[in-house]
Each structure stands twice: as C-alpha cells, then as structure tokens.
Design a protein that fits this description.
Elements (H helix, E strand, L loop, with lengths): L9 H10 L2 E10 L2 E7 L8 E2 L2 E3 L6 H13 L3 E9 L2 E3 L10 E12 L11 E7 L8 H9 L5
Parallel strand pairs: 1-7
Antiparallel strand pairs: 1-2, 1-4, 2-3, 2-8, 5-7, 6-7
C-alpha cells in the first residue's frame, strides 16, 4: 500500500477528528545526556513543553513514521528506534476549526539521533530543552511518559 501523505481538506480532516481517535507517533528523543522536549506552537498543548510527534499516515509503518517525524520536526536522522508502548491523550482543545476536542492514540518510541546532530525545528515548535525529569509545570502526558516508560534519571 502506498503512503497517503497528501493534504487532507480542512473540512474532511475536521470530520475525522470530530468523530474518531487519531493515531499518532510520539518521540522520546535521547539527546545530549537527557530527553529532548519541544515547546508546541499549535493546539493541543500550545505553548507547553511536549514530545515531538505527529499523526500516522495511511499506509505508513510505525517505525517509518518515527524516522519521518524526527526528520520533519527536528531535522534529525535516527540510529536507534525502540517502541515503548501506546498511550491515550484526551484534549479539550484543537487547532482545527470546528473541532472542540481531540482524542489521540500515540505509539511512543524511544529514539536516538545518529552521530552529533543539531536540532532544526519545523513549524510545530519554537524551542527545545533537554531534561532528565519532567520540568516544572510540564504537560501531564510528559509526566506520564517519564513515569510509565521509566525514562530520565
């Protein structure tokens, strides 16, 4: 099956998000002696420190999505990719007009960049920080991953 990564019209995408969960891939990036967090520029979690991540395309394998997201959102090529598990996120906000809430189901990966690469952020994020524990005021899903997947210190 080919990967369907083409643009989805706003109205169609809104109908999907309003009626069903969205499969996603989140990345726990081991970077410079800690875990990389990014500050989101769009809802849900706008302005919060969160995991890099994105939706899964139809026809895209999960491992391939992890590599794509690292390239698109962080400018990183990965050497290590390990699936940690699955989570559920329930959001009371959305960046899509006409959609008030979202339900995402991220498959969570622990990943490690290849060599000594610098992060180059895409349009989803405006800043990074490397942490060994959830920072003060972290999004609840950041805290959940640290505890549930035994990452950090």
């Amino acid at each position: 099956m080919r990967v369907h990564d083409e643009f989805i019209p706003q109205e169609t995408f809104a109908t999907c998000l309003d009626n069903m969960p969205q499969p996603c891939v989140d990345l726990v990036v081991e970077y410079e002696g800690g875990i990389l967090l990014t500050r989101r520029q769009k809802e849900p979690a706008k302005g919060e420190w969160f995991w890099p991540g994105s939706r899964l395309y139809k026809g895209e394998r999960l491992d391939d999505a992890a590599h794509r997201i690292a390239r698109e959102e962080l400018g990183l090529n990965l050497v290590t990719v390990e699936q940690l598990g699955i989570s559920e996120h329930f959001w009371e906000t959305s960046a899509v007009d006409g959609v008030d809430t979202r339900h995402t189901i991220p498959v969570v990966y622990r990943v490690e960049p290849e060599g000594d690469q610098s992060v180059t952020l895409g349009e989803q994020h405006d800043a990074t920080q490397v942490v060994t524990a959830p920072p003060e005021g972290a999004n609840r899903y950041v805290t959940e991953y640290f505890e549930r997947f035994d990452i950090g210190e």
